[in-house]
Amino acid sequence: MGVNLKEIDGIKIQLKHLASCHCGFVKFELDLPDGLIDLRRCDCSLCRRRGAIAASVSLDGINVLEGQEHLKLYQFNTNTAKHYFCGNCGIYTHHQRRSNPTQYGFNVVCLEGVNPLKVGGVPTYNGGNHPADRG
């Protein structure tokens, strides 16, 4: 599993933490009673290019407050994972995981008040060799 954190650089992760894309069109609230769970990077073809740190939340643990109409969906390969990003600024906000479809991964960079550059020791998952890709 990945790293779990209740604070980053002295900033406490709130039970209900606000997040947004860069332009602010998409605003969402995350239910994080245990802090940031299972922080990780992935080395699949998409994640290598976007370079995000993702943390986990259950499907009911994310609530889009504003900008649902600005979210765009991107799928590739097996079309199992659902990757969402702001259609205005292009920032990846969250995705429904292929490895665990009962969870969303969300972009830690979107968390209000948190500097993700202060997060260390985040493991990289081998998404480039996912079991669903093997024949």
From TrEMBL:
Q: Where is the CENP-V/GFA domain?
A: 17-133
Q: Which UniProt keywords apply?
A: Metal-binding, Zinc
* SUPFAM superfamilies recorded: Mss4-like (SSF51316)
Report if keyword Zinc is assigned. Answer: yes
Pfam families from the entry?
Answer: GFA
Q: What InterPro entries does the database record attribute to this sequence?
A: CENP-V-like (IPR052355), CENP-V/GFA (IPR006913), Mss4-like_sf (IPR011057)
Out of the domains of life, which is the source? Bacteria
Q: Which family does it belong to?
A: Belongs to the Gfa family.
Q: What is this protein called?
A: GFA family protein
The lineage is: Bacteria, Pseudomonadati, Pseudomonadota, Gammaproteobacteria, Cellvibrionales
